[in-house]
Amino acid sequence: MTIADLKATADSANEKVHDGLRAAKGVIRKRTNDLADFRDASALRVRRAPLQTVAIAVGVGLVIGFVAGCARGKNRPV
Fewest Cβ atoms nearer than 10 Å: which of 10, 41, 42, 76? Predict the structure, then answer.
């Protein structure tokens, strides 16, 4: 391999790295926008039906607590 071959390989690798970085930045930008849209939609839903939202949150909390309590109870020493 000559120095020119090594330089060409390094340039090719550099381009691929930059292409990957561009693609990653694009995905991050899209997901950030999606998350902002979800946040806005969630805030709107809470404003429209606050009691329903609280009831759902309490229900989810109870289910998670029940599942966690059952899991903990199975691992307790007798």
Answer: 76
Give me the sign of the Cα torsion angle 41, 37, 65, 60: positive
Which helix (H) or strand (E) segment holds residue 63: the answer is helix 50-74
Please answer whether residues 46 and 53 qualify as being in contact, where contact means their C-beta atoms are separated by less than 8 angstroms. yes
Note the pTM of the prediction, 2 decimals. 0.56
- What is the residue type of 4? A
Domain regions of the chain by residue span? 3-74
* Cα–Cα distance for residue pair 68/48, rounded to 1 Å: 31
Tell me how far CA of residue 53 lies from CA of 28, 36, 42, 57, 62, in angstroms: 29, 19, 10, 6, 14
